[in-house]
Write a structure and sequence with these properties.
alpha+beta; 3-stranded antiparallel sheet
Length: 195
Amino acid sequence: TILNLFKFPYIEKRNIIVRQGHAFVSTIHYRLYFELLNCSHFYHMYNGGTFTQFYSTYRELTYWGSNGDSVKANNSVVLRNPNYQLCAGIGYGKRGEIVDAHILHDKSFFTVEGLAITDINTINRYAILSLINSILGQYTINLYCAQHKHAGYMNLLPMPDYDKSQSDIESIVNSIIEIKRHWFSLDETNLEYHG
């Protein structure tokens, strides 16, 4: 059954491409939002995180400064895929026994640990989010890679055709996200908190 999946195009052939992000210096650039009195020159940062499917909380920020000048001047920083940063898409943590993908908000940097699929339309966003979080997707990727789900491995994940069921996929994924956002809105340690 799994071998038959590979008759379908892998996600990179569908122009759904996982990319590696920036390598910031954690001691200089990483902050939790509640550590700061002034968040100007800081952006959301997606760096993977604890296991949670479909939607993840936003707590981490990264210092970008004015046009990223101070970040670019740091020799320890490696900037990757700048044209795909700060765009909405899908993110997932690189390392884990079970891969879990989340909605990635726009105006978020992604990193070497929190990989991302950006430059993707809404229909494909929901389809790939459901595939990566499915038992089938997770089992398949684990057959050819171990804990580190690098971009190259994920880009080889076969993706069945989904046009006929796209409205069902979109509806189910939206329902899951709304439920998770509601529960996260009760947690005062994240930016989704509403009291």
